[in-house]
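tool=predict chain=A
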Amino acid sequence: MISVVIPLLNEEQLVERLLDEVFHSLEQTNENFEVVCVNDGSTDSTLQKLIEIRGNREELKIISLSRNFGLQAALTAGLEYARGDNTIIMDGDFQDPPELIPVLFNKMKTTGADIVTAVRESRSEKYSRKIYINIFHRIFDKISDEQQVAKTGNFCILNKKAHQAILQFTERNRYLPGIRNFIGFKHEFVLYDRPDRLVGEAKMSRKKLFSLAADAIYSFSKWPIRACLYLGILGVFFFLVAIIYTLGSKFLGFAPIGWSSMFLTISFFGSVQLTFLGLIGEYVYRIFKEVQGRPHYFVQEVYE
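tool=predict ok
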C-alpha cells in the first residue's frame, strides 16, 4: 500500500482540486493507497471540506491537530499515522505536482532505492523568495556535517525501512530534508519544475522560513559554535598586535593612539562577546526545548 502524507493549513481554496489530482495519480500506480491529510489547526473551512471529501473517498484519513503546531510537527503526525509500505510526503500548496507521484513510485521500483527525492530543477516563485532560498541551500550544503542535496524540500517517497528510521528521531527542532539525508540508505532523485501556488498566499512566511533555516543549521552543523572559536582566536590575535604596538610605541618614544583606539577596541571585543552569548543562547534554548520533552503535537480528532 502507498500512503501519501499532506499537511494542510488554511487551504480551503485548493484542497478539493489537490485531492482529486492526488487520487487520480495514485490510481495510476495500480496499488492500494491511503491519503493522510493533517489539518494543522486551520481556521477556515479546510477541515469541513476534508470531511465532505471523506464521505466519498474512504481512502482519505484525516488527522486534525488541536492547534497549529507548524509544518514539521504536522509532517511528523502524518508519518506516525501512515500505514503504507511506501510513504510519499508532499506539501499541501499544490507546488509539489501530484502527477509526479507515479514517477516517484516507479523510480523506487525500478532502482530498488529506499528513498526517492524530488529535486527542484527550477522554481516559479517570487524572485526575492527564490534568492534567499537558494542562498540557504548553498550555505547549508557547505557547512553541514552531513552530505546534503541542494534544491530539495519535503517531496519524496520512502520505503518502510526509511520511514521507520525517520520516526526514530525525537528532536523538537526538526528539519525533515536534513534528517532524510542523515539516515543514509540508497537514495535516488527525480528532477521536476516547481510551479508557483495556484491560489492563496504562502503559509511559510519569511519569518518561518528563516526559523526553519536556523533549525537546520543548528541541528546539522557545528559551524555556528566553530565560528565563535575562530572569532575568539581572531580577537586574541588583534589584542596581541595591539599590545606589541602599545609597548613598541612607549619604548620608541611616541604616544599610542588615544581614546579613539581604546573605543574601537572595546567596541570590537564587546560585539564579539555579545555574538558569542547570542549563539550560545540559541544552543541553550534548543537544549532546553529538548529537555522539556514536550510532545510534538496533540490530536483533536482522527477521521478514518
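The first helix runs from residue 15 to 27. Strands lie at 2-8, 33-39, 60-65, 86-89, 115-123, 152-159, 187-194, 299-303.
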